[in-house]
Amino acid sequence: MTAHRQPALLATDPDLAALVSAEETLQAETLRLIPSENYVSAAVLEASGTVLQNKYSEGYPGRRYYEGQQNIDRVEALAVERAKGLFGVEHANVQPYSGSPANLAVYLAFAKPGDTVMGMALPMGGHLTHGWGVSATGSWFRGVQYGVRAEDGLIDYDAVRDLALAERPKILFCGGTALPRTIDFEAFASIAEEAGSVLVADVAHIAGLIAGGAHPSPVPYADVVSTTTHKTLRGPRGAMLMCKEEHAKAIDKAVFPGLQGGPHNQTTAGIAVALHEAAQPAFTAYAHAVVANAKALAAALLERGFDLVSGGTDNHLILMDLTSRGVPGKVAAKALDRAGIVVNYNTVPFDPRKPFDPSGIRIGTPSLTSRGLSAEHMPVVADWISRAVDAAAKGDEPALAVIRAEVSDLLSAYPAPGLPVA
Predict the structure, then answer these.
(1) 126 is in an annotated binding site
(2) A Pfam family for this UniProt protein (predicted)?
(3) pLDDT of residue 420
(4) Is 127 annotated as belonging to a binding site?
(5) Burial class for 405, CB neighbours closer than 10 Å (0-12, 13-18, 19+)
(6) Active site includes 228?
(7) Which of 34, 299, 317, 320 has its CA 20 to 30 A from that of 347?
(8) H helices within 261-377, ranges in order?
(9) Catalytic residue among 24, 29, 56, 323
(10) Which of 64, 76, 177, 202 is catalytic?
(11) Mean pLDDT score across all residues of the chain
(12) Residues 240 and 179 reside in one and the same domain
């Protein structure tokens, strides 16, 4: 019998320890296809659970409001220097608690309530914090949105330019949460310059691909680059803001004291480790494998008759419209979950259905690539998805159970990073 991974937790709170153990098992035995999820390494897990959690550190290295920061300053400085080196930026702030607070700091730095801001519409693949109405950013600012073309699911940069010149937004966001194609950062920069806007590239989903050279970088073009540190970057749940030196003071002031108190030092440590890992040759291979797997999976899904928004993918993400299969996205996602395949239901561009019961599902390849699955496995994955969607249409629960057993059997040969090995 192996020792429990968290003996103190088990002794103090066996109920919570059991839930953590159950989640470890679930992550080990299921195929995680949510594109915003990944597995962190054991080193990142360890760094995120250290005694650094015991420290309050309001301020920045060398300029703290608390004493006893000798080690904390060096931890944060290490994370900052690694971020600057990895992404080639002039300034980096590693303190934002997550992606949404990071984007709020951008607003605080460059706009005032009521100003016009512009981003991709949420149903078209954008993010809530890009000025969408139900978000605080859409309540406090005047949000205008661009989308994609109905005929091909791609951004119409001429239409973006026309809208930007008509609205003259203070901030122009590019990037989103359901964009399967390469973002033309240079085109967005040209539009922003012409409209007099601050260009913010939200690369939360593709930061790891950028770090690994598998997606173009926005750094030469954007005034600010906002990103989470998990997803394809394989770090802890945190965020970073990177920018040109001319904007450093405004960004730092917006994060602290503008929106936050003390940073989460244990998360900063985990970010530092993840950035170190992302600078290694193995991570470059990983980033390219994520894209290769996504392209192979998209091709296999197309062969099985699925409708993919924009017809495929250039990155880690695939957006599927299930209208032609006669199965709503929510029904399909829940059936896939019972089959051991974890996805999320998602709106598709021009979706006639409601956001909580949309037409599509969103899938991605970061997690399965972290486990070592390759392009040769993608036809099998596509076959599982196809069989599960068909089973959902028929209400065939036994078929889902068969798929789940097949998934578990394959994954047993590909252990996930950071999880206990049975």
Answers:
(1) yes
(2) SHMT
(3) 79
(4) yes
(5) exposed
(6) yes
(7) 299
(8) 265-278, 281-303, 329-338, 366-370
(9) 56
(10) 202
(11) 96
(12) yes
pLDDT one-digit tens code per residue, 26-63:
999 999 999 999 999 999 999 999 999 999 999 999 99
Please say if the pLDDT value at position 266 is more than 70: yes
Residue 116 lies in a domain: yes
Q: CA 107, 179, 200 angle in degrees (round to 5)?
A: 25
Question: Nearest to residue 72, comparing CAs of 59, 82, 87, 81?
Answer: 59
Active site (annotated) includes residue 325: no
State the pLDDT at residue 422. 47
Catalytic residue chosen out of the listed positions 84, 142, 168, 237 = 237
Rg (CA), the chain: 22
**Domain total for the chain?**
2
Counts for the chain of helices (H) and strands (E), in that order: 16, 15
* 240 and 322 fall within a common domain: no
Last residue of a domain, one of 221, 254, 278: 278
What is the H or E stretch that residue 132 is in?
none
Residue where a domain stops, chosen among 250, 278, 306: 278
- Any catalytic annotation for residue 268? no
202 an active-site residue? yes
For residue 146, give its domain range: 47-278
- Check if 396 is active-site: no
Beta strands at 344-346 and 171-174: parallel, antiparallel or unpaired: unpaired
Residue 245, annotated as binding a ligand? yes
